[in-house]
Amino acid sequence: MKNSVRVAISGAAGRIANNLLFSIASGQLLGDQQPISLSLLETPARLSMLNGIAMELHDGVFPLLAGVEVSDDPWQAFEGADYVFLISSPLDSLATASKTADARMEQHGNTFALHGKALNDVASRDVKILVISNPVMINALMVQRNAPDLNSSCISALMRLDHNRAHALLAHKAGASLADVRKVIVWGNHSSTQYPDFYHATIGGVRVDALLENDWLHQVSIGLVRQRGYAVIDAYGGLRAASSAAKAAIDHMRDWIFGTRDGDWTSMGVLSDGSYGIPSGIFFGFPVVADGGQVNIVQGLQICPERLEKIHHSADEIYRRCQQFNLL
């Protein structure tokens, strides 16, 4: 049996984490031959709940689960971490969001700055850190700015939920198998400015513009993907998506570790190098390929001025927010 690896999760008492933890313990992240130790981080006020989750993990008798630790100290929780999912302690329901957006963002920023410092001090030097909580691109940059000793390639931001939504929507519209859909992109931010892009997508090797009407592909679908999260919230009576977000986090991390499938890419928030005119130094959702644990932005895509304007609109939103919080 292999030596165990250490997986740390912040905001571990929340709904996303609750779905994520049991999937990881069952081997869905690293496979059925890799033992794992879980390190769970929460605020002091939620430690009692977290202890209950730890009990359930133990009672689940997961063969791969080598241990579970619970803490409210990020330096303890992130010690030697190989893989980290940063969910903070977000509000599960919009109905409980009494603070202004800026106040919530400032609170999150302080949390992610602290987490960045702890990760910088104690995590594995090859750690893979996935930031999940919104505003996800700002939070990822906050971590990166506070972890100067970690390579920026160790940090990424979740766009996979939006990518998966676009992928599933396209398959459903075409009446096709999910496995046959390739080269979907969701550019930009996890917000209403994101740009779902089917221009390069194929189904069974055939370009989708030969299979579906242009208006749906390049107009209607954009709104459907952008609004999907709000549709879920409405259906749940105010609760945010949790199961699909946890699945997206695992999909993101698995592609990062094991590589994207041949002939395909995924959407991932990574630090911009200036590709496609996106300002360097901000985190942004790009099409990427992964291989051997390394992620590279797909280069050379033909993008017309109209589509590029939509992509840059999302970049402008992120850039302004970064400036607002003195991150640039």
Automatic annotation (TrEMBL):
KW Transit peptide (keyword) present: yes
Keyword Disulfide bond among record annotations: yes
Active-site annotation: H190 (proton acceptor)
Sequence ranges assigned to domain Lactate/malate dehydrogenase N-terminal in this UniProt record: 5-149
Molecular functions per Gene Ontology: malate dehydrogenase activity; oxidoreductase activity, acting on the CH-OH group of donors, NAD or NADP as acceptor
Segments forming domain Lactate/malate dehydrogenase C-terminal: 160-318
Residues the entry annotates as binding NAD(+): I132, S133, N134
Keywords: Disulfide bond, NAD, NADP, Oxidoreductase, Transit peptide, Tricarboxylic acid cycle
Organism domain of life: Bacteria
GO biological process, one term: malate metabolic process
Family: Belongs to the LDH/MDH superfamily. MDH type 2 family.
Function: Catalyzes the reversible oxidation of malate to oxaloacetate.
Identification of the protein by name: MDH/LDH-like protein
Designated gene of the protein: frsC
